[in-house]
């Protein structure tokens, strides 16, 4: 790695650490980009070169956290029935939001309204998660658990959408607790999988 690349990596790390610390201690709304730049010991213009707006940094931090959690979930996945595998993986996603519900709520809201190139990047990131879920669906088809004629990506998108809607309603206060959210997701998941199994070999 060149010296310039090392400097860029170090600057990004300091921005990430400063942003995560301030968002957690002061809250997203109360934290300014100027404070993030000062905490990272960089100029405000340098911060904008990496993240042109505050919500871009929050989205980056949350997506990184979710990626790490998914990596751990898939790394510790024990072969089981498809419903148990999916509950294990989506439990890791729920845990990310549970660590700081305030930031999770802001992340969900800001992600919906991000535009331009960042929107395309976030859509690609989301589809990356869907493809990982689809790999589980495909394996379940090979085991004879699910209808082999179903498109695994379509099925994964339905399951991800179901989970995402549950997270939104839980973070928004319409579901009273994490336990209630998880119980509702598991019930909905098993109902959906019942239909996907209908024509299984």
Structure explained in plain terms:
- This protein has 201 residues and is an all-alpha fold.
- It has 2 domains: 1-52, Arc Repressor Mutant, subunit A; 54-197, Tetracycline Repressor, domain 2, CATH 1.10.357.10.
- Helices cover 79% and strands 0% of the residues.
- It contains 9 helices and no strands.
- Helix 4 crosses helix 6 (101-113) and helix 5 (82-99) crosses helix 6.
- The longest helix has 27 residues, at 116-142.
- It starts with a helix and ends with a helix.
- The model has no long low-confidence stretch (mean pLDDT 93).
SSE topology string: HHHHHHHHH
What gyration radius follows from the Cα positions, in whole Å? 19 Å
Overall tally of domains: 2
**Sheet with most strands:** none
Percent of residues in β-strands: under 5%
